[in-house]
Amino acid sequence: MNILILGGGGREHALAWAVMQNPKCDRLIVAPGNAGIAQIADCASLDICDGTAVVEFAGANSIGFVIIGPEAPLAAGVADDLRDAGVLVFGPSKAAARLEASKAFTKEICTAVDAPTAGYAHFTDVAAARAYLADHPLPVVIKADGLAAGKGVVIATEREEALKAVDDMMGGAFGAAGAEVVIEEFMEGEEASFFVLCDGDAVLPIGTAQDHKRIGEGDTGPNTGGMGAYSPAPVMDDAVVAATLERIVKPTMAEMTRRGTPFQGVLFVGLMIADGRPRLVEYNVRFGDPECQCLMMRLGAQALDLMLACAEGRLAEAQVNWAHDHAMCVVMAAAGYPGAYEKGSIIGGLDALEGDSFSMMFHAGTATRDGRMVAAGGRVLGATARGATLAEARQRAYGMVDAVDWPQGVFRRDIGWRAL
Ligand code: AMP
Ligand code: GLY
């Protein structure tokens, strides 16, 4: 079967790596891909948010299965266009992608099914939002309703800061995404992510993870897309997993199906856990990046079978073959990230890292220039490894990091500290 993956980050490199190991894959094309992906698959330039263009490309290249990596094409309805054209696709419809694309929608679903989450109020009017903040306890969480590339959340510890966040968001700092805001109660606890495949009927857990969002060691400094991750998350014990499935995931999926907008794809469940009780922070309708790198390292070739079973509505008969292993991904970013950073610095040492089923250097933002590998994004590489213990996975991952010759790169030395 010919397979097309949409996206070009570390997540998509990991998906491509897992898919390529499965003999069901005859040819793999990744659009747009990156320089690391180009070493294992064909890359194509394509506007991945243009459904008509993606359908045409799939037809022209005899694609039998499309895996959609990032949220933007999902929110744009590319999965619907492919399904309408009769192309098998992994990823939710535009209507089901609202679980990520609208925070107010997710809150409304949580209320409808009584899923535990932070108390909230939803505003379309600045004056009403400001008035609501007047006596709200601090800290308070302000969220732009729509997709804001991970930047639409402000945790305000002072009232002035909260008011400013509302003014900025509703004043257009995130364009249409901030026209509406959700104001939430601040939840204490430990965060973890839970990944579940759903086909509109059955649900199948495929792993837990924790990521490090802050740029600096000790989880300090500005937020990033994620500087590292590990799987499994120790805080997600059997009881927390069961409670998350019964009280949050299954009721949400049943409600989406009942509304005529079943969810098909991977649901990324962001949780806050306190005293063994999980509450929903947010849903994403795609794999996390860099969490996906850890999950693919652990699942390997079976990831493709699971995604196919999901897309074909056969999830009830699918099962995951677990190795009781651990994985870690350490992200290497360009100095300056998540602020302004330079592109084009030369990265050496990558050729010596061959990669195998225990360790892979996934590329997130790389390009080739005059035959050399150069940085081409904020997050650039994801050293990902697995082992019988997290300590072993960590040792392998940092072994790869240390073999890279890239003076302009930055990374954290403490990924996994909470679990180790
Ligand atoms: P994201 O939406 O993934 O960019 O990240 C938002 C982050 O803000 C989450 O990962 C949490 O760390 C934090 N957060 C969001 N909502 C809440 C809440 N209600 N209480 C506490 N922390 C929150
Ligand atoms: N690592 C968090 C995300 O992918 O949203």
Brief overview:
With 420 residues, this protein is α+β, with helices and mostly antiparallel strands.
Can you characterise this structure?
The mean pLDDT is 97. Helix 1 runs parallel beside helix 10 (291-299), helix 2 crosses helix 4 and helix 7 packs antiparallel against helix 8 (159-173). Strands 10, 11, 14, 15, 16, 17, 18, 21 and 22 form a 9-stranded antiparallel β-sheet that branches. A hairpin with an 8-residue loop joins strand 7 (140-144) and strand 8. This protein is globular. The protein has helices at residues 10-20, 51-60, 71-75, 78-84, 98-101, 103-113, 126-133, 159-173, 238-258, 291-299, 302-311, 390-403, and strands at 2-7, 27-32, 42-43, 65-68, 89-90, 120-123, 140-144, 153-156, 181-185, 190-199, 203-211, 214-216, 220-223, 228-231, 264-274, 277-284, 326-334, 359-363, 366-369, 372-375, 379-387, 409-410. It is an alpha+beta fold and 420 residues long. Helices cover 30% and strands 29% of the residues. The protein folds into 4 domains: 2-93, Rossmann fold (3-Layer(aba) Sandwich), CATH 3.40.50.20; 125-179, Dna Ligase, domain 1; 190-317, ATP-grasp fold, B domain (D-amino Acid Aminotransferase, Chain A, domain 1), CATH 3.30.470; 326-410, Alpha-Beta Complex (Glycinamide Ribonucleotide Synthetase, Chain A, domain 4). Bound molecules: adenosine monophosphate and glycine. Adenosine monophosphate binds next to strand 8 and strand 16.
